Amino acid sequence: MTRRPEREMVPMVFDGEMIDDETVVPQGQSVPRLTFPRWRAVAGVAGGRVRAVVRCPAVVHARSVAGYRVRQAPRDAVRLVWFLVRGVGRWGAKGWRWGSHADLRADARAARLAGDVQARRTAQETIRADARARWAKAGTVVRRTVVGAAVTTVVLVLLALGEMVAGREVMPGWLRAVYAVRDAIGHGVAGGWPWVWRSTVCALVCAAVWEGRDRTPGASWITRPDRDDDGSWVDERMISKALAHLGIAPLNAFLRGGGELVYTVPARRDGDGTHARIRLPLGVTADMVCDRRRVLAANLGRSSLETWPTTGEEDGVLDLWVADKGTLSGGAGDWPLLHEGTVDVFDGVPVGLSQRGVVVAPPLPESNWLIGGRPGQGKTNLLRVLLLGAALDPTCELWVFVMGESPDFEPLRPRLSRYRMGLDDTVAAGAVRALEDLCSEMERRGRILGEQPGRPPKVSRRLADKPALGLHPLILAVDECHELFQHPTYGRKAEEFAVRLIKRGRKYGITLMLATQSPTKDSIPKEITRNISCGAAFAVADHIANDGLLGSGKYRAGIRATELRMRTDRGTCVAVGITDATFELVRTFYVPFEDGADLVSPVIARAMAHMTDAKRTVVTTGGTRKEIDTTPADHLKDIYSIIGEEPRVRTQVILARLAAHNPREYEPWSLRDLRATLRSYGIRAYKSDGTMVLRAADVAEAISRRDLASDD
Description:
By secondary structure, the protein is of the alpha/beta class. Helix content is 47%, strand content 12%. ATP binds at residues 373-380.
């Protein structure tokens, strides 16, 4: 039976094409194509969308900016090159100024021009000390660099020698790790060095360009400027430019001729502002600049309140102080003694902040005050702050007279020795009587000072602390004093006594404080204005009121309270005589006493507690105060009385108790004087436990012997 051969499967191949069911068309028909109108419609829609995108504001702005930058590319390139050169030059100038101590040398030069030998010597010593410090720092850096490089070189050489002597395969694991770290550092340095120096060069170029763009006269990001507010920067160039545009003909001619202003004190930081002193050219006085203060302030970019040109030590010297922007617009803050602290009126009472941001604390003895301004500007608050500070000194005696129905000083009543308030004649009579009593007290104090050892010329803190002498500080305050001086009955007497006190009373510890809202030539006597030592003027209307409070000629000298604005500058005053400066612009501390806020009474409660701790009471000095007893002191009885019940007392303790008992008699005594007095009565001190003591029995026996001898 034969086997049929097996058939092989052969795949069949069919020809065809893939079709989309959406585009299926009947057989024999062609696929429809877009006609020309349809293509035109599609192109129109696409073109509209493209035009909408191109014409949108963002694309138009970007296209304009790009086109402008392309057109300005050559100019920008030149500017960048200029910024680069200028920045490198500024770095060089700053480095030169730092290396040559230019700022300190300027101080020395200014001190030499001003004739200040001490300031010049101080600047020169500072230069030498700074140079020594710089060389010492440089030596330290060089020494550390050399030592570090030497140590690194030795370590690398030792590692290389170790690798040459023995292969790494025989080294311990920790040593192979050291070699691995070395190799990694080496590869990192080799690979990164090209990028490091390129990045450094790029960074320096960018920094130089940035430095070149800086237009401030001081240092920028390398040398930190003295003030944080770059907009407040004022230098000699800006001041000279501002002065050149004041419209002063002689000054303009001088500058057009190539002249340069001489700065006897260069522009420098002074508190919250800049101070400079300029010697003006021939034909120009400081008054001319002061008269154009508003223009000068505008030229310097300041308000009038922030620009203070005044006459220096000569008429041709301009003393200029310019505040930083906005520093004078805020208040002074809380009074430093509002919650704690005591006062020594001989050291000063804090009343406010000066234009430099420094607390102003004028001493009250040896001064008299005249405070004035328009109503509601802060004169009564300043007077109250002065009295509150004096109340915190337990040795002070305070008298207050208010010539009107005002309760501003009512909380001080517990601390006041005399207090009257009202508009009737009895208040004026009481004020005149107080002035007369102070004149009598002044004569008494003069006699007491003349009897003190060494004949001191004035009352000091040491003398004021002795109650037996009665030389404690005595302050009389009169609010609305114009009502007193213009009183038809008592005005003439009040003026006479007040002028006498102002002229002579200050060295006897007597202080007169006057406050007024009507500082005219009729309301304030001329002799008071001429002799007052401390004047404070809040906002006033004209130059007459200004000079009536601050003194004759102050308006012409540029010291003007007329520049202060009503309500806006409430609490700010122009003051003279309270510091060594020509004037101070003081933002006074405010201690509220009004509806819902009374911070005055707690201060008075503290003052009364301090008086209790000091074992003092509120006393009243009268015009018929008892004179000092001139009867010779009985030394034996005084010694026996201060020993008291103790059987024996150290001689040093006896001497101290005698000085406290009768300062006038015993304060000059020494132990030698005490021993001589005891020896004259047959009394001898003896030593016990290493100290000299005196027995009460010996003193009592000496008194008995003396009394028996006197009876015989």
